[in-house]
Amino acid sequence: MLRNVLAAIVGYIAIVAVLFVLSSLLWLALGASRAFQPGTWEVAGGAPTTCR
């Protein structure tokens, strides 16, 4: 039982670590100017958050 719980916890930590590394590599590849919309904190290519 304890082994299964520890395996699940280690699995979640591994997923978080992989996602962090991939996000960091994407940030380095794109740079800050291409990661966000100009003059806002909205992610480039993301759906708009305001209704018009």
What is the domain total for the residues? Answer: 1
- Major β-sheet, in short? none
* Category by helix and strand content: mainly alpha
Which percent range fits the helix content? 55-70%
In what range is the share of β-strand residues? under 5%
**Number of beta-strand segments:** 0
Overall outline: elongated
Instruction: Report how far apart the termini are.
Output: 53 Å
Count of helical regions: 2
Give, in order, the helices and strands. Answer: HH
What low-confidence regions span 5 or more consecutive residues with pLDDT below 50? none
Give structural notes.
This protein has 52 residues and is mainly alpha-helical. It has one domain. Helices cover 63% and strands 0% of the residues. The mean pLDDT is 84.
Summary tags:
52 residues; mainly alpha
Task: Write a brief structural summary.
The chain is mostly helical and 52 residues long.
What is the topological layout?
Layout: H1 2-30, H2 32-35
